[in-house]
Design brief:
four-stranded antiparallel beta sheet, alpha+beta, 29% strand, binds zinc ion, 7 helices
């Protein structure tokens, strides 16, 4: 059988233009410009800050923050990195984009206020799609192919809170998985997690991994803000991964990390109630299967016993719902297994 694949889609030009030259040595601060005609600016643009630092031949690392716009450790550490980077201290290329879904980042929201796009659910993107899909397509066809290492910073955002961890995924290609795990270890967050995604389809992670890139991600806290502690984890992780990749010189800064695994769906606890959350364990607590994790109180009526939620497995309480109120189907908590 002969398969005819239309070149039409892949030939479409992405409307984003770059003010930086990815092949030029030195440090360049600039922007990616995506035309956006709207009421306040008829010929306006979405202008996404980017820094490229390059010195000679060597590996390329692509750093992103604000894939979700309300997750801040990555953006803080990456704006800081852009200010400090000097081309003569590196071998290879560093691409820094602190605000990947820039409209979401500007608005302090998880998703884009323009089109509702969740960046981590639209890959591989579409050059003729929504604004979020156009940005994803630019990453998919222009930026990811440049990279050897891809580090995408996440945190819990306004609705989740996590023990700070760096993570890699279980991959079919075990050689690639080994490289990703080595990068996760080098990052050296306080916790290192083999992550099971709830829904991996259309994620940036999956796009990078399918191209054979060494990909790691993080969850460094949550609640829609940062702490000095979690920002320093991001900064140290950046220094370490740059050393691991051979882009900067020096030994890794190694502190204790706890290895955790999320082997299957039994890790996750979801709410089937609407109401007020009473957390019964803290992040980092060891829990047993059957242990009470949280209660959800009915706020419409008083004098009604709360719904109770229990751990399904033994492990460490690793992530939780952040706001005081919760809805039916919302993530309530996750228990990871120490390895
Ligand atoms: Zn995120």
């Amino acid at each position: 059988m002969i398969l005819f694949i239309s070149p039409y889609f892949s030939m479409k030009k992405n409307p984003i233009s770059s003010s930086v030259d990815f092949e030029k040595d030195g440090v360049q601060h600039g922007f990616l410009k995506l035309p956006h005609s709207h009421d306040e600016s008829a010929w306006g643009s979405i202008v996404i800050p980017i820094t490229v630092a390059k010195n000679g031949v060597g590996p390329t690392i692509l750093f992103t923050g604000a894939n979700h716009g309300d997750e801040y450790e990555g953006p803080v550490a990456l704006f800081d990195l852009a200010n400090k980077i000097q081309a003569n201290n590196i071998s290879g290329r560093i691409i820094i984009i602190p605000g990947m879904n820039y409209p979401a980042f500007q608005a302090g929201k998880r998703t884009s206020p323009i089109d509702g796009g969740n960046m981590n659910r639209v890959f591989p993107g579409n050059p003729e799609g929504t604004f979020t899909e156009k940005i994803a397509d630019y990453f998919n066809r222009t930026l990811l192919p440049l990279a050897d290492y891809v580090v995408d910073f996440h945190s819990g955002g306004k609705t989740l809170d996590f023990l700070p961890f760096c993570c890699a995924h279980v991959l079919e290609d075990k050689k690639q998985q080994k490289k990703c795990v080595a990068a996760m270890k080098a990052f050296n967050a306080p916790h290192s997690v083999m992550l099971l995604e709830i829904d991996a389809v259309n994620m940036y992670d999956t796009a990078a991994e399918n191209m054979g890139k060494v990909f790691i991600s993080t969850e460094l806290g949550g609640g829609g803000s940062t702490t000095a502690y979690t920002v320093e984890i991001a900064k140290k992780g950046i220094r370490n991964i740059l050393r691991h990749a051979g882009i900067i010189k020096g030994n890794l800064e190694v502190d204790k990390t706890i290895y955790l695994d999320m082997p299957d769906d039994s890790c996750y606890i979801f709410s089937e109630s609407i109401g007020l959350v009473e957390h019964c364990v803290n992040l980092g607590d060891k829990v047993k299967a059957g242990q009470l994790i949280a209660k959800v109180h009915n706020i419409e009526r008083i004098g009604i016993l709360p719904d109770e939620y229990h751990a399904k497995i033994d492990g460490v309480f690793t992530g939780k719902h952040f706001p005081g109120l919760i809805g039916n189907g919302d993530f309530l908590g996750v228990v990871a297994v120490p390895v």
